[in-house]
Design goal:
The complex is a heterodimer of chains A (about 110) and B (about 110). With about 110 residues, chain A is mainly beta. Helix content of chain A is about 0%, strand content about 55%. Chain A has no helices and 11 strands. In chain A, the strands form 2 sheets. In chain A, strands 2, 4, 5, 6, 9, 10 and 11 form a 7-stranded mixed beta sheet that branches. A 4-stranded antiparallel beta sheet of chain A has the order 1-3-8-7, with no helix packed on it. Chain B is mainly β. Chain B is built from no helices and 9 strands. In chain B, the strands form 2 sheets. In chain B, strands 1-9-8-3-4 form a 5-stranded mixed beta sheet, with no helix packed on it. Chain B has a 4-stranded antiparallel beta sheet with strand order 2-7-6-5, with no helix packed on it. In chain B, strand 5 and strand 6 form a beta hairpin. Chain B is globular. Classes of the chains: A mainly beta (about 110), B mainly beta (about 110). At the A-B interface, strand 5, strand 9 and strand 10 of A face strand 3, strand 4 and strand 8 of B.
């Protein structure tokens, strides 16, 4: 069984479009995260949710908004996509705030 | 979180031990040392973490110096599948904000 899953695996879209990436974890974890890995391979945290509350919000444009319908899901919505949004986005989860994080397989977003 | 410094790349022969160093000279008393790795095109994978004592699990061993300013991740018998980028992260207790650096690209060669 997949612990942390993301859909879609690949997403190609035009500038200006709005898109969503879904994430689900079946580990019963309390905290979920979104990371962005750019072309230089640097992995940066974007958001984390604990018990449906946002607890980290790095300097991410407000075009990006996480939505958590329940504890097992944390979806990432992106409005007005820009070329610079092209990257691989990883979802992760952890049992507790400072616990080991389990990562999903990633979603490669390409904005044309 | 304390900044960590790692060599950009290392090679290791298959079957030999891979020793990956990490400097974290500004680490504070409540910061743990975490190691993750990222195999090409996959999400990062947790390996091990420790505070002061050396730690061992089924994947690796973590050796932390007494002054806690540096640590070494040891893969005792490296295989080709261990080729990956290895990240050393210093992270405070009750802090879920993990900051990844550039890591060390380990290449295991036949």
């Amino acid at each position: 069984d997949t612990a942390v899953s993301q859909t879609p695996k690949y997403l190609v879209t035009q500038m200006g479009n709005d898109k969503s990436i879904k994430c689900e974890q079946n580990l019963g974890h309390d905290t979920m995260y979104w990371y962005k890995q750019d072309s230089k391979k640097f992995l940066k945290i974007m958001f984390s949710y604990n018990n449906k509350e946002l607890i980290i919000n790095e300097t991410v444009p407000n075009r990006f908004s996480p939505k958590s319908p329940d504890k097992a899901h944390l979806n990432l919505h992106i409005n007005s996509l820009e070329l610079g949004d092209s990257a691989v986005y990883f979802c992760a989860s952890s049992q507790v705030l400072d616990g080991e994080q389990f990562f999903g397989p990633g979603t490669r977003l390409t904005v044309l | 979180d304390a900044k960590t410094t790692q060599p950009p790349s290392m090679d290791c022969a298959e079957g030999r031990a891979a020793n990956l160093p990490c400097n974290h000279s500004t680490i504070s008393g409540n910061e743990y040392v975490y190691w993750y790795r990222q195999i090409h095109s996959q999400g990062p994978q947790y390996i091990i973490h420790g505070l002061k004592n050396n730690e061992t699990n089924e994947m690796a061993s973590l050796i932390i110096t007494e002054d806690r300013k540096s640590s070494t991740l040891i893969l005792p018998h490296a295989t080709l599948r261990d080729t990956a980028v290895y990240y050393c992260i210093a992270r405070g207790y009750n802090n879920n904000d993990m900051r990844f650096g550039a890591g060390t690209r380990l290449t295991v060669k036949p």
